[in-house]
Amino acid sequence: MIRIFSHYVSKMAFILLLLEMVILLVSAALVSAIWLGDARTAARAEDWYLSSLAFALVIVFSMSTLGMYQHRSREDIRNTLVRIMPSFALGFALLSLLFYMVPTIHFARGGLLAFLLGAVGVLLTRLLLFTSAGSAMLESRLILVGAGPLARECIALAASKVGYHQFTVVGCVDVPGEECCVTSALLLPGAPSLLAIARRYGASEIVVSVNDRRNGAFPARQLLECALGGVRVIDAATFFEREACQIRIDSLQPSYLTYGGGFDQSFVRATSKRIFDLAASAAICVAALPVMLAAALWIRCEDGGPVFYQQERVGKDGKIFKVLKFRSMRKDAEGDGKPIWAAADDPRVTRVGQLIRKLRIDELPQMLNVFRGEMSFVGPRPERAYFVEQLKAQVPYYDVRHSIKPGVTGLAQVRYQYGASVDDAVRKLQYDLYYVKNNSLFLDLLILLDTVQVVLFGQGSR
């Protein structure tokens, strides 16, 4: 993994993006060279170069929105074929719009050839990269110090890992005095030192998964020897943050949030985020205006009730504000006045409500909350005060998510299903803590791309 603006990015995904960007540029350049052979078009060479760059950027953007660079979604040849066709179709639509708006960007007769060469190049690149020895070289071999509950969680993450960054848990080194929660097959035989064990099994990294580090048997000196010997040593909290984009509550030491860096709330970050909020919200409002008008008309026609629904939510620093949404439930959804968690196949949801929730259309009016400065476009989703008080009493560090503005979309929304219980709230909080700690404009853009995919495929709605 590599870190870009505090966010962990898979080396494989990054290499793949760079290779495909070059391939798309070369495809467009070859097509341009063919048609630039005509002297009448030679004077327009600069326009062709701009067109080639626009072609590559738009296609990469289209593939990103359909999840072809997603950290948790490894592409095999079949999956690539399934995704590459709609990706290039979306790219064709976006380029057609761009060519119409900017006359100097065009491909004339060579456009279809550029798409064909680009698609074949992307397909071959992914086939070679995923089946070559180079992809295996990017795999990490880990040793866990500890064999307790935390080690079991790390092993479970490794077993479920399907992202571009692959890693293998070689085994665990048991620490005396800690409960053993892994199978005996995963326990590594003793050796003079941890460094010797790491070199014996070719491990490049050691993950400390021991909860009680004050235990006299904790191998602090041996871990230092490993670090000095070229074997990277990290703790379980860093491991989960890097591999799952989560700050796990069960592995979190109180000092980690204090001394772990991040939490950028500088003037530059606040200004760039506000500009991004306003630009993204304005663009979404303009693009989605017909959809919002249709949704409002349908809601009004279904039961004659109000189109919009306002609900008190907890914002930055615990301040209460009213969030605006399209009404997706019956008018008497909470007739007794007591807040209720949403449930799967909730009978209170109307017919139009099922659709607008699935496509997240019900959230569109919250752009007004963004313009007012009550919300950001990206951030932790705001929760109702009734549930916040419950969660603060039951979930450690829950109030940390209120240190920044809530968002219309967020990392938890694109990585986890709709929250409908305390357990769901804990799991979503782990993503929210990651965002609060590592938020940046780069991460906002990635979440925005993931949000497009969530909307297109209706993931995580309830």
TrEMBL record:
<feature type="domain" description="Bacterial sugar transferase">
    <location>
        <begin position="273"/>
        <end position="456"/>
    </location>
</feature>
<dbReference type="InterPro" id="IPR003362">
    <property type="entry name" value="Bact_transf"/>
</dbReference>
<feature type="transmembrane region" description="Helical">
    <location>
        <begin position="107"/>
        <end position="129"/>
    </location>
</feature>
<dbReference type="InterPro" id="IPR017464">
    <property type="entry name" value="Sugar_tfrase_EpsB_2"/>
</dbReference>
<keyword id="KW-0812">Transmembrane</keyword>
<dbReference type="InterPro" id="IPR017475">
    <property type="entry name" value="EPS_sugar_tfrase"/>
</dbReference>
<protein>
    <submittedName>
        <fullName>TIGR03013 family PEP-CTERM/XrtA system glycosyltransferase</fullName>
    </submittedName>
</protein>
<feature type="transmembrane region" description="Helical">
    <location>
        <begin position="81"/>
        <end position="101"/>
    </location>
</feature>
<feature type="transmembrane region" description="Helical">
    <location>
        <begin position="48"/>
        <end position="69"/>
    </location>
</feature>
<dbReference type="Pfam" id="PF02397">
    <property type="entry name" value="Bac_transf"/>
</dbReference>
<keyword id="KW-0808">Transferase</keyword>
<feature type="transmembrane region" description="Helical">
    <location>
        <begin position="12"/>
        <end position="36"/>
    </location>
</feature>
<keyword id="KW-0472">Membrane</keyword>
<comment type="similarity">
    <text>Belongs to the bacterial sugar transferase family.</text>
</comment>
<keyword id="KW-1133">Transmembrane helix</keyword>
<feature type="transmembrane region" description="Helical">
    <location>
        <begin position="275"/>
        <end position="299"/>
    </location>
</feature>
